């Protein structure tokens, strides 16, 4: 098991990106803009977490928050109460798991592929949420209903990921 980065390493990575003229999302804008990451308002936090999507240090940031059991703020695209797990379940992981199946896959199969074992209910919930987003953006298709829902990727480019 790898050791998660420290907060100091996270700050150093953020500073390095800023020095290269590519500040991470939580360090851009006005002080009022940056306050969204530490807000107590769940809507502000949700908006801040969405802005983490293109961040080059998102995975490290989430790992710090998960390891520290950070109870506040938006970290690595997560908000309090939604940080659990290992951070392995994300859009690229779901797309890769879908691509690994030679048949349409269930949420349980996708989650089991990602966690390399028996997925928890939270793992399955995260996969279902991401899969629904992929369907809504046209990056995956959904067939079936109820307990028989299955997903597949929609493009060759993503199945090669």
Categorize the overall geometry: elongated
CATH class of the largest domain: Mainly Alpha
What fraction of the residues are assigned to beta strands by DSSP? under 5%
Mean pLDDT: 83
Separation, N- and C-terminal Cα atoms: 24 Å
SS field, number of helical segments:
8
The description of the largest β-sheet is: 2 strands, antiparallel
Number of beta-strand segments: 2
Write the CATH architecture name of the largest domain: Orthogonal Bundle
Poorly predicted ranges (pLDDT <50, ≥5 residues)? 156-161
Structural domains: how many: 2
| CATH homology group of the largest domain | Winged helix-like DNA-binding domain superfamily/Winged helix DNA-binding domain
Instruction: Provide the helix percentage.
Output: 40-55%
* Major sheet strand order: 1-2
Within the CATH hierarchy, at the fold level, what is the topology of the largest domain? Arc Repressor Mutant, subunit A
**Structural class of the helices, strands and pairings?**
mainly alpha
Please give the radius of gyration in angstroms. 17 Å
Q: What is the ordering of alpha helices and beta strands?
A: HHHHHHHEEH
């Amino acid at each position: 098991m790898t050791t998660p980065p420290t907060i100091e390493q996270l700050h150093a990575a953020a500073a390095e990106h800023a020095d290269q003229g590519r500040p991470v999302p939580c360090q851009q804008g006005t002080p009022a803009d940056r306050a969204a990451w530490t807000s107590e308002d769940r809507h502000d936090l949700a908006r801040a977490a969405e802005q983490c999507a293109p961040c080059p240090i998102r995975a490290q940031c989430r790992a710090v928050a998960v390891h520290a059991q950070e109870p506040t703020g938006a970290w690595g695209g997560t908000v309090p109460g939604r940080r659990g797990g290992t951070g392995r379940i994300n859009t690229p992981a779901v797309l890769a798991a879908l691509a690994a199946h030679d048949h349409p896959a269930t949420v349980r199969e996708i989650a089991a592929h990602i966690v390399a074992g028996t997925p928890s209910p939270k793992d399955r919930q995260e996969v279902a949420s991401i899969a629904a987003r992929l369907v809504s953006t046209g990056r995956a298709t959904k067939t079936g209903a109820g307990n028989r829902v299955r997903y597949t990727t929609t493009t060759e480019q993503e199945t090669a990921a």
